[in-house]
Design goal:
By secondary structure, this protein is an alpha+beta fold. The chain contains five helices and eight strands. The chain has helices at about 30-40, 55-70, 115-130, 145-155, 185; strands at about 10-15, 20, 75-80, 85-95, 100-110, 135-140, 160-170, 175-185.
Length: about 190
């Protein structure tokens, strides 16, 4: 059994059009601006309940950096190589180290939508997870969030099921969640 050690993950990942970096305080302003510009598209994310400010973004980046240094989670900010603009944020959380399983989450900058940049970045993170020893990467989305469901499928993830009334949405109502997953064996 391979032990997953997230502290061995690189601080920077490169894909053809994007650069992924472990969050740092200096990312906070770009992160804050990208989230603010994307608020209308974040209906299914708790962040949409109120506008987030620079102090929130700074704390978020600092918490991500601490979690990464401690080997608890993986998180990356995504920047376009041409122009250096903030494209989005990707994290791998809810990690079960014994089962070699984690859940990938992502929020993209709405101004970059439709160009495949986040898809490229998420695939790079999934590949990294498998190199680190994960066997399974999951994604969960509100069943009403058609964009997120389509995105998970575009990543080559298999729809595994519907979890009825699984959690509360940002408005406090119960919602169904769709579970997607990809296995290391699927990528071989």
């Amino acid at each position: 059994m391979t032990r997953i050690d997230l502290t061995t993950a690189p601080a920077t990942l490169l894909a053809p059009r994007v650069r992924l970096e472990i969050p740092r305080p200096e990312h906070a302003a770009a992160f804050c601006e990208g989230v603010a510009a994307s608020m209308p598209a974040l209906t299914y994310v708790a962040w949409s309940l109120r506008l987030r400010d620079l102090a929130w973004a700074l704390r978020f980046c600092q918490d991500d950096a601490r979690s990464a240094a401690a080997g608890e989670d993986l998180a990356f900010h995504v920047f376009e190589i041409e122009g250096d603009g903030w494209v989005g944020r990707i994290d791998v959380h809810t990690i079960d180290f014994a089962a070699a399983r984690g859940e990938v989450g992502y929020v993209g900058n709405a101004r970059c939508a439709g160009r495949g940049l986040m898809r490229e970045a998420v695939l790079a993170v999934i590949d990294l997870c498998f190199r680190l020893g994960f066997e399974r990467i999951e994604a969960m989305s509100d069943a009403r969030n058609m964009r997120a469901l389509h995105f998970a499928e575009s990543l080559g993830m298999a729809r595994e099921g519907l979890l009825r009334r699984h959690e509360r949405d940002p408005q406090g109502e119960f919602c169904d969640m769709v579970l997607y997953a990809t296995l290391r064996a699927d990528r071989a």
